[in-house]
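Every protein is a chain of amino acids, and every chain bends into a shape of its own. The fold becomes a row of whole numbers, each drawn from a learned catalogue of backbone shapes. The protein below has been through that process, and both of its lines are reproduced in full.
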Amino acid sequence: MKKRHLSVILLLFLSDTSYSESNEKLTIYHASEIVTLDEEFQSVDAVLVKSDRIIALGSLDDLMEQSPEAIINHQFQNDVLVPGFIEHHIHPFLSAITMNAEIIAIEEWDLPNNQSKAYRDRDTYMQRLSEIEKNMKSDLPLVTWGFHHYFHGDLTREDLDRISEDRPILVMHRSYHEFILNTPALKYFEISEEFVESLDEEARAFADFDRGHFSEQGMISVFPKLLRYLGRPEYLLSGLQLTEDYLHQNGVTMIANPGAWLIKPIQEAKNLILGDEDTPFRSFFIPSALILSEDHDVPDLVEEAKKLLEWGEGKVEYLPNRIKLFADGAMYSQNMILSEGYLDGHQGAWLMQEGLYRSVFKLFWDEGYQIHIHQNGDAALDLILDVLEENMANNPREDHRTTIVHFGISRADQMERVKSLDAIISANPYYVTALSDLYSKKGLGPERALEMVRLGDVDRAGIKFGLHSDMPMAPGSPLALMHAAVNRINFANEVAGPNQRVSPLAALKGVTLDAAYIMGLENDYGSISEGKLANFTILSENPLSVNPQTIKDIEIKATIVEGKYYPIR
């Protein structure tokens, strides 16, 4: 972990110091196996790197003959080089908050600073929450993340008051689309009944002051009040550093954040931690049209999005001509919009109302933007495809790469439309691991639950797809994502929807080459190819040849990012 002190941090904010350095040395990396994902060079055992770029691929003997002056690096001669892992959809800010929160989640988390056990029922959850509160030595608020109502039961302000009538307790739902607060927390964060009544109708529908429960638009309305605590510098900076360390230990060499929070001090914190030269990966951000629309009229959104291109620094940058839209609510909250509804009769939620969604989509479509769209329900996917089809008819575009993000619940009959409209998929396969068993009994039923994230159908249709964690919605481990997509083994230790499994090769492309394609960065990232950046993840075994059920257990030895070696300690 990089060591920083607040005084130094402040100085760095004001510094114009350049960290760039010249490195024109030629290096040949020799490995037991190199998985290039390059059709021209599929069987090689060496790669020639100059500065930050790949110059050539081939056998060790051939590259030594070609460049006799090159340094021969045998450090990985017993290991496997694969293209650098890409986490193309995570949330560094939310991950930072999570890293510093008390994690009580439905799976184990192996973090740089902590290991958290799994808690999958109400009794163990409430017991753990009470233990944490009793053991706290300060009078600061208790902030916890990982609660899931289908595993842990209903949770209200009254429940939390029974744990403490004095300490503020903030429970952040696994989805980050819901918060529950006790009475001291409502007072601490200045969330009054009068404030809730002052919200617009859409937000009030998802804000229950009596229960201390806020979700979707209601959550968005109260979140700025919570930021006074969650966004304080020492909390945020340490959380971002832990996030960086965690991603590195999982072999990640590039990240992207579609739908970034557009708060300048938070962005400056991201720039400081993730943007410096020591950071072992590069970060790309895409703005959220939903957040922009909270403060700006629709016709102004393109110009407002362009202003954000100046917000990045160092290894952090905003990508031009890309925007994130939102259809329906969270998978973890069962706020998806479904064509056949829920077993218990509850309703999902739109994050952008249809009129707003249609107008914003058309605006950015006509400006030539690549549009990423958060979707979790099949009815929401119908709307996305309808709007895409209408805009394709009115203003045809090639290579638009409209991206359907998360891809929770869909129908087999929708795959033909996705393919015909040249849309692509950014999927979270961990939904299957965590939710398919429980959701087959609650909310969805087995047919929809076991077929969630139907990547087998996507692959057979020839639709390009990537895999993401949406961290902290899932552990930010590309190997774990591959494992989930290839095996589809859920918490009940059953294979959920065997026909929706994909091959290890397709899964590896999903965290490398096809992930880069989704970001429009495939010319520099995603494969070990001549001219691309020298980004490698070094593994103990080849994920394409091991027993598929052991993919997640492969040891990650190190990364090389833009020609620079980053060991994993």
About this structure: The radius of gyration is 23 Å. Residues 1-83+530-569 form a domain with the Urease, subunit C; domain 1 fold (CATH 2.30.40.10). Residues 241 and 273 are 6 Å apart (CA to CA).
